[in-house]
Design goal:
This protein has a domain of 136 residues: Tetracycline Repressor, domain 2. Helices cover 73% and strands 0% of the residues. It contains eleven helices and no strands.
């Protein structure tokens, strides 16, 4: 007869993930061992393997779970009867609200996603695109002129450039909390995006080609970062 799961099985899994995320975030995924995870979780190594088969499965669960929560938040805001501007604001507030309680998982996503196998990396990248795509759709509806000028994607990536690296300088014991910063970022975005103007295009063929070449690396970077940094 198969052994049944304990009543607190799911809670134990979440606790293990939280301890592993903290270790990965502080020491790095390669430098962390299953022995260290077991010790941090207050479990024997044998018990740890009852919940997770190896260290890699922890990495997948941490990164995919974090992005899945972001996707759910974006979809929850999209389902509300909100104007486009308020939808943008609420997405910022909700995303940063999640970051406040998942700083370790977010750092693992930022620093250790490169250790994922291609099939897992692509799946998580697709989920990240759903997050940035939700923001882009709201910004495009709110500011159709930015959409026509081809600026929605750059503005979206600038937003994520601001919030994705906030953990590198925002001190948990500082004067401003993530909740405080959520309002500040939302105000900055909502107040600043309408002022963004399309760049002036150079008319000559030679200058246009030169300008195009100069923009290409930025476009490539935005494309490759679109999912990686959500």
């Amino acid at each position: 007869m198969a052994r049944g799961r304990a009543a607190n099985y799911d809670d134990q899994r979440e606790m293990i993930l939280a301890r592993a995320a903290e270790l990965f975030a502080c020491s790095g995924y390669p430098a962390t061992s299953m022995n260290q995870v077991a010790e941090a979780a207050g479990l024997s190594k044998a018990t740890l393997y009852h919940y997770y088969r190896d260290k890699y499965s922890l990495l997948v669960e941490i990164t995919e779970g974090h992005v899945a929560r972001l996707v759910a938040m974006v979809e929850a805001v999209q389902a509300q009867d909100l104007g486009a501007e308020e939808r943008v604001r609420q997405m910022v507030v909700r995303i940063l609200g999640e970051y406040a309680h998942a700083q370790h998982a977010h750092r693992v996503l930022t620093d250790d996603v490169r250790f994922l196998h291609p099939e897992d990396s692509e799946r998580i990248l697709d989920m990240q695109r759903r997050v940035t795509g939700g923001f882009a759709d709201a910004i495009a509806e709110w500011q159709p002129g930015q959409q026509a000028a081809g600026l929605v994607k750059p503005v979206t990536m600038l937003l994520f450039g601001m919030i994705n690296w906030m953990f590198t300088w925002l001190r948990p014991d500082g004067d401003l909390s993530y909740e405080d910063m959520a309002g500040i970022v939302a105000d900055l975005l909502v107040g600043g995006v309408p002022a963004v103007r399309p760049p002036q295009r150079v008319s000559s063929d030679k200058s246009t080609k030169t300008a195009s070449r100069r923009r290409s690396p930025l476009h490539a970077e935005a494309t490759s970062t679109e999912g990686d940094n959500a």
